[in-house]
Amino acid sequence: QQQVKQSPQSLIVQKGGISIINCAYENTAFDYFPWYQQFPGKGPALLIAIRPDVSEKKEGRFTISFNKSAKQFSLHIMDSQPGDSATYFCAASGRGSSNTGKLIFGQGTTLQVKP
Amino acid sequence: EAGVAQSPRYKIIEKRQSVAFWCNPISGHATLYWYQQILGQGPKLLIQFQNNGVVDDSQLPKDRFSAERLKGVDSTLKIQPAKLEDSAVYLCASSRDLNSPLHFGNGTRLTVT
């Protein structure tokens, strides 16, 4: 119940295309859903995050779509660029002393954007 | 602001040896985390500190792993003795408080031979 399942494992997109990565969770106590971007040799960096009181959040070319009833959320990267080539992780955590701040990560998606 | 600092960047040891990793969080961040990231997987939480107290260490293999955060700032993570399956990147993260976003360091890549 603590798992976050992420798909696809890898993704190849042409420059200018849309990259879509999906995540699903089981624990209804989760109420914070961030996406992290990780380049080789670097730590994960926060990209964008959402709480379940909204269904969508957009920051520049990055959009999170959230479906509370389906317990799913996704990352959309519009106008994908070669510089977006990285590994993306979805994550989730919940409120309360037993959950707060403790991010549970998905397995990761390796994105390659071809020029 | 300076990011989360970790050292060393790389470490190669033989199994049954001991190793220690050091983390200096972002100034003023009360919460500190150690994560283990095995190649091809997402980070997995090992231990969470709030100031110098442990909030959660349920995922820490306590027979071989130990961590401390003296004075509520820097932290060290130790493995003794190391096993082959401990080969991974050890990431330190910090946040202003329990409800704030996590900021990660670049990690220490450990290879156990």
Question: What can you tell me about this protein's structure?
Answer:
The complex is a heterodimer of chains A (115) and B (113). Chain A is an all-beta fold. Chain A contains no helices and eleven strands. In chain A, strands 2, 4, 5, 9, 10 and 11 form a six-stranded mixed sheet that branches. A five-stranded antiparallel sheet of chain A has the order 1-3-8-7-6, with no helix packed on it. In chain A, a hairpin with a 2-residue loop joins β6 and β7 (62-67). In chain A, 34% of the residues are buried. Chain B is mostly beta strands and 113 residues long. Chain B is 0% helix and 49% strand. Chain B contains no helices and eleven strands. Chain B has strands spanning 5-7, 10-13, 19-24, 31-37, 44-50, 53-56, 65-68, 75-79, 88-95, 103-104, 108-112. In chain B, strands 2, 4, 5, 6, 9, 10 and 11 form a seven-stranded mixed sheet that branches. In chain B, strands 1-3-8-7 form a four-stranded antiparallel sheet, with no helix packed on it. In chain B, a hairpin with a 7-residue loop joins β9 and β10 (103-104). At the A-B interface, β5 and β10 of A face β5, β9 and β10 of B.
Largest sheet of chain A: 6 strands, mixed
Give the tally of β-strands of chain B: 11
Share in helix of chain A: under 10%
- The average pLDDT value of chain B, as a whole number, equals 95
